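[Automated response] Your request has been received and processed.

Submitted sequence:
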Amino acid sequence: MTDLLDGTARLILHLGYPTESFRAPLIYNPYFASLNLKMAVIPMGLKAEDFDAVFPGLFRLTNVLGALVTMPHKIRVREWLAEASPAVKIAGSCNAVLRRPDGSLAGDMFDGEGFVRAMLEKGETIADRRVLILGAGGVGSAIAAAFAAHGARFLRLHDPHAAAAGALAERLAMHYPAVAIETGPALAEDCDVVVNATPLGMSPGDPMPIAIESLPQGAFVGDVVMKGGKTAFLKAAEARGHRIQLGIDMLYAQIPAYLAFFGLPVTDSATLRRISGAT
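Generated structure:
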């Protein structure tokens, strides 16, 4: 790969802090190398207190194509966008920035698109589904936006902070008025998709995000937690016969959307897994 990084190479910056958990360079860069493409994703540790001083200057570098944006900058970066997608407006956060030819920045959010694409890759449909989303933070909001964009019929939004779920419902209704939206308790019995978009499951001993016994028979169950493979929630759901989706599936499935956003050659998540050596 280093043979490809000459003076004509273009860069996608991976901005966040801390950088030790970044996985994107391990997926993108082998793919670029497989195409002999003079591109690289470069991890850059940027602390929250330095963001406003550093971020705009990075996009004055002439070979920077854009950036992948992760915590703690997904919200702050919106202030620098000349154009924001509906997903950014609904989620209130942004994880991809494109430097346009005039130097202005366009932003998008692909967490939700990745979750939906991963379901589609498994042969699931999205149109007309009834979905319970647990968690109305940035990831849960992005997933709700993606389900709405792909034609889900009904979304139930639950968050311990009722105001967060209510605000998300209002933003969704502005962009997708045809989708039925409800907020309130985490009731799953009339839903055929259940998504855990909360941090529950990241640490051993975390409680279940919803009682396993309340999942309706045949429901598809997904989680956004990427740490440690199958969460206890997914293991329990699988043991009861539910089809499941891991958080890491969302990561791989959203990368083709990122590639299209940056105007780069697009592939599928199976190819990315193979090239990056993922199991």
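Summary generated for your ticket: The chain has a mean pLDDT of 93. The chain is about 35% helix and 20% strand.
If you did not submit this request, please reply to this message.
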